[in-house]
Design brief:
The complex is a heterodimer of chains A (167) and B (419). Chain A is an alpha/beta fold and 167 residues long. In chain A, 29% of the residues lie in helices and 18% in strands. Chain A has a seven-stranded mixed beta sheet, covered by helices on one side. In chain A, α6 packs across α7 (155-163). The two termini of chain A are 20 Å apart. Chain B is built from 13 helices and 18 strands. Chain B is 29% helix and 18% strand. Chain B starts with a helix and ends in a 9-residue tail after the last helix. In chain B, the strands form five sheets. Chain B has a five-stranded parallel beta sheet with strand order 4-3-2-5-6. Chain B has a five-stranded parallel beta sheet with strand order 16-15-14-17-18, covered by helices on one side. Chain B has two domains: 5-263, 2-Layer Sandwich (Aconitase, domain 3), CATH 3.30.499; 271-418, Aconitase, domain 3 (2-Layer Sandwich). Classes of the chains: A alpha/beta (167), B alpha/beta (419). The A-B interface holds A 13, 15, 17-18, 21-23, 25-28, 40-41, 59-60, 63-69, 72, 86, 88-90, 93-94, 97-98, 143, 145, 154-156, 159-160 and B 24, 37-38, 40-41, 44-45, 48-50, 66-67, 71-72, 74-75, 78, 121-124, 126, 138-143, 145-146, 149-150, 154, 188-189, 192-193, 219, 222, 224, 277, 364-366, 383, 385-388, 392.
Amino acid sequence: MKYTGRVWKFGDDLDTDLIIPARYLTTSDPNILDGHCMEDADPGFVGKITKGDILVAGKNFGCGSSREHAPIAIKAVGISCVIAKSFARIFYRNAFNMGLPIFESPSLWDKVADGELLTVDSDEEWAKKPDNGSEAFPFKPVPPFMRELMNAGGLMNYLSKRRSGGG
Amino acid sequence: MGMTITEKILARHTDLDRVSPGMLISARVDIALGNDITAPIAIEAFRKAGGKKVFDREKVVLVPDHFAPNKDIASAEQCKVMRDFAKEQEITHYYEVGEAGIEHALLPEKGVVLPGDLVIGADSHSCTYGALGAFGTGVGSTDLAAAMMTGELWLRVPETMKFVLRGRLNKWVSGKDLILYIIGQIGVDGALYRAMEFTGETVRDLSMADRFTIANMVVEAGAKNGIFIPDEVTESYVKDKAKRDYKIYSSDPDAVYHSAIDIDVAKIKPQVAFPPLPSNTRDIDRVGDVRIDQSVIGSCTNGRIEDLRIAAAILKGRKVAPFVRLIIIPATPTIYKTAMQEGLFDIFLAANAVISTPTCGPCLGGYMGILAEGEVTVSTTNRNFTGRMGHPKSEVYLASPAIAAASAVLGRIGSPEEL
């Protein structure tokens, strides 16, 4: 799948408390959580997002708590995918399990700016700026099992499909 | 070629004879754990996927501890979702408030987790169980839902980093200082996706409480699990608690490691992690003048009886500094009762500390000690991220119970040696 969105950049070690502070963990409703996404990292974040925008982050994105509220909030606010230098492991699991596309690219971060347009090809596993001639930034290949999870739309859909013999 | 203890436990929970780093496996779980924040999402996913009965009511463990006793109406609703599910599914190990404590202190104490177990917990500090020689790792709510349905979970076999601890610990240096020091050395992603195995002559001298603290915080270095090879200390801890068989694993001499790091613990001083990352560590004598508004002693990291005894030894006959709040949170009802019987509560109350019911509470900015804008706390908890314990412009400094107790008296971050 190919999609284009505006880039919002964040730095290294962005933790899940910044993605969704614990004061909002009294609910798991995406329609409430989306209003507080990234609130303590950038209080104006929710206001400037349009559906399909892309998060570009540094290393160890999503470190800290196991709260699935973090990928839920990112997905609910309309972010199409997260591209980071690396991901903390529980966030990585959660994203695949609940169907938020994420990609690892060590080189992209230094080459894009806030607000720039970026095109992502999730099958070919690269991102590039939509203008002609822009270099492609390759993603670290997604392992086949993880790709199956992603294509199924998450772990529970994957299990349901397997149970019903659909794959 | 041999295997590490982590690889052996993982292999034992599959139909494979051996596993090696990088393999994706589907592993049978002995314990699938959730709490009042993470279980409601898992329960919804379980139902949505057509789940009727959990795979084994003895192996699903549910503990209301984060915002329990209920902090407000919304958290009351979340606790109720979990409670109703526990009733409906006849979950053996559901612990109601009064019997419940902070999950990672409670489960070992109750003998629910034992050496050789494979534990997945929808809580990042589920790595704590590595102290027992079990494989424990934090996962998300959807993982918990899948494990509740199928009894299995996909895992990538981690590489193992070996930490060889040598030498004798200095006075006031505890498991907390060791793990903060190590995180300071390797960084918050220094063990990303890996296992951290703690070995070496110093381990013999580490109490179970110290080992739990160390294993608890490996996630702050990005690790998948932390692990100790069981010894006499482990066996004497579990022997009266175990109500089922357990298995002791150790690493083969020819096991393959990602790396081995030697640490001379005699060089380590009490550590303080400055905001906003657990890796921003400094020796206590290089902290400078950091005034505090609050000190918290508790959590899955440092709310055990040994932690409270150290705090009491320092607070005895002393008072908390003016305008400072000292909040002490025994991690489980048993710890609470023991502390009371040993007279620790008299010491705490005489020092003007407040004693809370067991809860995760302030550690994650829930309740029972939230910070206002500009306020500073020293805390025995595990994370000092921006806004972690309250206002985004408040600050958390991580330290041991000894430092937290001494700091409460001093009104600034300092050592018991200064009292």
